[in-house]
TrEMBL record:
Residues 129-230, 252-354 form the PH domain. InterPro entries: Arf-GAP_dual-PH_domain, ARFGAP/RecO, ArfGAP_dom, ArfGAP_dom_sf, PH-like_dom_sf, PH1_ADAP, PH2_ADAP, PH_domain. It comes from Ceutorhynchus assimilis (cabbage seed weevil). Residues 6-127 form the Arf-GAP domain. One of its GO terms (molecular function) is phosphatidylinositol-3,4,5-trisphosphate binding. This is Arf-GAP with dual PH domain-containing protein 1. It is found in: Cytoplasm. Keywords: Cytoplasm, GTPase activation, Metal-binding, Repeat, Zinc, Zinc-finger. GO terms for cellular component: cytoplasm; plasma membrane. The keyword Iron-sulfur does not apply.
Length: 384
């Protein structure tokens, strides 16, 4: 009997929809949830198991023994039908995870789908109303200690505020439409339920780092910011589709890591800096968790004099894995830790340089450049 069941399962897996994981789209799922009737990958099977058997019953497709009724259930449901039910009302601002996304995103997506059934019952989506508030642990700018701070998101005012003392004026007011947020950045480990919020203040970038003990809370904050951003964009661009606008809500940094860079003079030595590429902004810091970058380089389009290539400028000593970033104002000599890392940096920067500028990019560039003369703030053209 079991051999027959194994054959049926193999046949079922060939159907479109069943050949990828029901939750993260990765290819060739090896597991199944036999009560939900879906085919899933190894990683997602772990999340399914963690929810408990009252939500999801997991089996390996080949290594476990299958009963007729269980195979029957797989035949009856399958990934496509399950999607229609459990993903029926996913709001357009929700970031649906892909295979390589942070674990928290995948975990919370699976729990939202099957445990909380948020996409069957939209009234359970606490993050779509445009207002969100609560306490988050925020890293201090100077002493790097985390302290509890009240945060309030208001789509109507286009603000995200935080308070040191609840009944006093906010410590900071951020414009929702101008901020970017990254969920669970690796450098914040061991705080996995974390956000890095990045925004422009006085012509320079500021990073805020927060975390919460509960993964669901921090994910809800992330989605709430995305939802508020989407609604603001819909007002500004009423003729654009939600699907199109939802591409511009949040953007993970294309790459982060250590590089060595020289100063503006060829005689300057190479200094180790933590680089982060946020859309068209290449920022560098002393420390990965700094609140402000030491300098920021706006990466424009190739037609405007931006370029990237391997090697060093004349007179500069090659550090082994060097490359040059050319902007209309100067050439940056940079060096990576390995050949692979250098090639990855060149690849991501090339992609940016080849991409046409959006209206938002132009606005960011103008705000960064306009402030460059103020003596105290960090300047993008006189890097230290
Ligand atoms: Zn998966």
């Amino acid at each position: 009997m079991s051999e027959r069941n194994e054959k049926i399962l193999v046949e079922l897996m060939k159907f479109s929809g069943n050949n990828v994981c029901a939750d993260c789209d990765s290819k060739n799922p090896a597991y199944a949830s036999y009560n939900l009737g879906i085919f899933i990958c190894e990683r997602c099977s772990g999340v399914h198991r963690s929810m408990g058997v009252h939500i999801s019953k997991v089996k390996h497709l080949k290594l476990d023994k299958w009963e007729d009724s269980q195979v029957e259930r797989m035949k009856e449901v399958g990934n496509k039908r399950a999607k229609m039910k459990y993903e029926e009302r996913v709001p357009p601002c929700y970031r649906i995870p892909k295979e390589d996304d942070p674990h928290i995103l995948i975990e919370q997506w699976i729990r939202a789908k099957y445990q909380r059934e948020e996409f069957c019952y939209p009234e359970r989506q606490s993050y779509t109303s445009g207002y969100f508030s609560g306490f988050l642990m925020k890293r201090g700018k100077e002493d790097s200690r985390y302290r509890s701070r009240k945060f309030i998101l208001s789509e109507q005012d286009d603000t995200l505020k935080y308070y040191i003392t609840e009944y006093k004026d906010p410590k900071a007011i951020l414009r929702i439409s101008e901020l970017n947020v990254v969920l669970s950045p690796e450098k914040m480990s061991p705080y996995i339920n974390s956000l890095q919020i990045t925004f422009l203040k006085d012509g320079t970038t500021r990073h805020i780092y927060v975390y919460h003990d509960e993964a669901e809370v921090i994910t809800n904050w992330y989605m709430a910011i995305r939802c508020a951003k989407l609604h603001r964009l819909q007002v500004a661009y009423p003729s654009d589709s939600q699907t199109e606008l939802s591409k511009y809500l949040t953007e993970d940094f294309a790459k982060e890591g250590w590089l060595w860079k020289t100063g503006p003079r060829t005689s300057d030595g190479f200094k180790k800096r933590w680089f982060a590429l946020d859309n068209r902004k290449l920022m560098y810091h002393d420390d990965p968790m700094d609140a402000n970058p030491k300098g920021e380089i706006f990466i424009g389009h190739m037609a405007d004099g931006y370029g990237i290539k391997m090697g060093v400028s004349t007179g500069v000593k090659d550090q082994g894995f060097s490359f040059m970033l050319t902007t209309p104002d100067r050439v940056y000599n940079l060096s990576a830790q390995s050949e692979i890392d250098r090639d990855l940096w060149i690849e991501v920067l090339e992609r940016v340089i080849e991409k046409p500028l959006t209206a938002q990019d132009i606005a960011v560039s103008a705000r960064l450049v306009r402030k460059r003369t103020s003596s105290n703030s960090i300047s993008i053209f006189s890097p230290r």
